[in-house]
Amino acid sequence: MVPKKRILILFFHPLAHKSRVNRVLINSVKEMEGITIKNMYDLYPDFHIDVKAEQRDLLNHDLIIWQHPFYWYSSPSLLKEWIDLVLVHGFAYGREGKALAGKQIMTAITTGGRNEAYIPEDGKRYSVPQLLAPFEQTVHLCRMNYLPPFVVHGTHLLEERDILEAGSNYRKVIQMLRDESLSEEEIRKENYINHIIL
Amino acid sequence: MHQQDFFHQALIYLIAAVVSVPIAKRLGFGSVLGYLLAGMAIGPFVLGLIGTEGEDVMHFAEFGVVMMLFLIGLELKPNLLWQMRRSIFGLGGLQLLLTSAVIGGVAILLGQTTGAGIAIGLMLGLSSTAIVLQTLAEKGLIKQASGQASFSVLLFQDISVVPILALIPLLAVNISTGAASNQDDIRRIAGMEITGWVQVTLILLVISGIVVVGRYFARYIFRIIARTGLREIFTATALLLVIAISMAMDLVGLSPALGAFLAGVVLANNEYRHELEADIEPFKGLLLGLFFISVGASIDFKLLLGSPGMIFALLFGLIAIKFIILFILGKFFGIKGGQNTLFAFSLAQGGEFAFVLVSFSLENYVISPETSGILFLVVALSMAITPLLLLFNDRVIFPLVFRSENTQEHDQIKESGNELIIAGFGRFGVVMGRFLIANGLKATILDNNPDNIQVLRKFDFKVYYGDATRADLLASAGANEAKVLVVAVDDKQQSLKIVDLAKRNYPHLKILARATDMDHTYELMKRKVAGYNRDTFESSLNLGVQALTHLGYNNYQAHRLAQTFRQHNRKVIQELFHHHLDDEKKYLSETKKYASELEELLRTEKEERGHEQDCSWDVTSRREETQQLQKNGIK
Fold it and tell me: Which of these, B26, B450, B501, B571, is most buried using a 10 Å CB contact count?
């Protein structure tokens, strides 16, 4: 069966070999059909991003996932570099920039802090979707559809089996997205995409 | 000779050399012409400061040629020599055969006997190893196509001196009665008469002796000598080696130069090669200088002024015949364009062996005293004129060859000077050149390899042929308007010369220099160049990164480690530079300095090791803290 959606996971992790959770997430989806995974820090250790190749890959997929640890309420710096260089005017946005229109983008992040650290309280805290606003806005500007993020909280305290469970959840979510088991409207109701499999 | 006499002579020769060579160099003529002019000036026909003893000096100084061939041998590993066999025997053999035949024929037409014709052909077929190799080395041309071809031809000529020496007495026999024809294979060696096959055995014995000692024992001997720590004893050993080989070769009737060359090749893989080179080099230089001076002094101006027409006609004829044959053979052996004229001009003179052969032929009644005088003069003049011919080739022929190819483009570029000058376009400079073309920049290039120049012209580069250490070349390359000068030549001394020249005359230029080793780096730092880079550092570090990734480091981490090391290295070099300046005050020997620096470098690596970097991405410590807090029940 040909997958309905071709999925591209762009994985940003400067210390991938020390990662506990992200590695399991990647391993649990890497054998799936219709999935392309790119280890970005391995591809571009000198931050010299091959813009043409990246754009070609975007064109050849329908759902793009930015997977990374949540560093200082944002992404590792290579993702920012990637956004700056790849999503250029005339390609991704602007009057003529419609190349990516209609594609979906989702963020998949891991945070050291627990869920409680991301519950707004007296204007002192912000939720994960709030913190991801710049990414969301970027996606909108490129005429793409932004999906709720896949989030794994409290990674410092996760036991081996918790991590494996997070991996299997990730796999289920991606499977549903690939096979379009749910409409985009249904999905967008959730604040975390993790909830669609509940 | 009285001591007083000796000092008197030394004084004259030294003054002549010290005065004339720098002037000649400054004017771009090269040292050989400087020595020759000095010799003419102090010779019996101009100032008369030295008399006929000049000829003895010349014989003594010919030993410089022996040393030069020893040094060349050191640079030439045996397998390299084997690769050159085609050009040595093919090109060299044909050159000598054809040139001798033509010159011999002309001599016979001019009224010489057949025997004398053959002898003259053979002696004039030879070229001057001393002049050619010294000049080519000074211009850095030895490793180019023309230099290699010249070297092959000279080597073959050196080998053939032995059979020529054996042949000349036979020629005498030919013209008289043919009485002593059974003399042919009898020679007197060490006072004993021996026959041909004994001589062959002796030759084989001496050569295999050189090979065996050089290959298996030399390193132990040198190690013992080096361990004494007395530099002069090492020098003495090196000299002893060369002199002993020369005498042994002489004894069995072979050319000492050939023997020294062979010894050099055998020792080319020896670990003391560089010390040997450094020790012999100054002796070679001085003796060759002395040799050139004595050639200059031997020019018989009386004979020249007596019949200038005839002498110049012969001189011109000699050079023309040699040039044409060399040029045709060069074409035939695939030497291209500019390299071929260089090759043909280089070897178009008579050589120092001709002097030996002229005297020898005279002793054997092959030629008449008048002929010998004329031959001597023509050969000396042809040697003296060689630097001028090469200069003519550089300044007149080359521009003609290159301009005729694309006049318009050349002139067009000339209108505006480029902002960047690159001196040296070999393995190093070429990478930069490609980088610049790729980015649409234009650079002016100074290089002394005609092959490069032809290609570069095609790609719109403004190229100047020649030695960038010459002030006029830098000027015509537009150093006045340029902003950046990149010194990418591979020779350390040349590089520093260019830097000094540019610093002095064009202080506005930003100089970026390729450094070949640590010492070179320090010299560049002392001169406060705008930038320097050790030519092997980056590529070596890059391979190091690849090694790490193959050992399982992730790519990004390996890159970060390399960056850190790069930074660390910059710091270390600064520190070492200060130590180096201190050490210099203490006059430590080069090798000691090197060893101590290496030690210091490696020690800093050890001290710096284990500093974990990229800690903010490593969450281990934070995880432990969180787990600790959790355990204590604090949220």
Answer: B450
